[in-house]
Design goal:
It is a single chain. The protein has about 70 residues and is mainly alpha-helical. Helix content is about 60%, strand content about 10%. It is built from 3 helices and 2 strands; from the N terminus they run H-E-H-E-H. It has a two-stranded parallel sheet.
């Protein structure tokens, strides 16, 4: 993901991240991936768009990341 974010900066394009919880999957799984990818985007100064958010935990992580930006 970090490499993809670095490459996407060259083209000034976002990485569209599909972290939606799979049916029957634990909600913590979605939040874990969202947290990782938001952290990588911050470190690389990359542009990530989290698509199809389906858990409250992931929404809160995105809100926190937007406040930092």
């Amino acid at each position: 993901m970090a490499e993809a974010l670095e490459i996407s900066k060259i083209f000034n394009l976002p990485i569209i991240d599909h972290c939606e919880e799979l049916i029957g999957g634990p909600p913590e799984g979605e939040a874990k991936i969202v947290a990782r990818d938001l952290e990588l985007a911050e470190k690389t100064k990359g542009w990530v768009h989290i698509a199809h958010v389906s858990t409250a935990g992931a929404v809160e992580l995105i809100r926190q990341a937007k406040r930092k930006a």
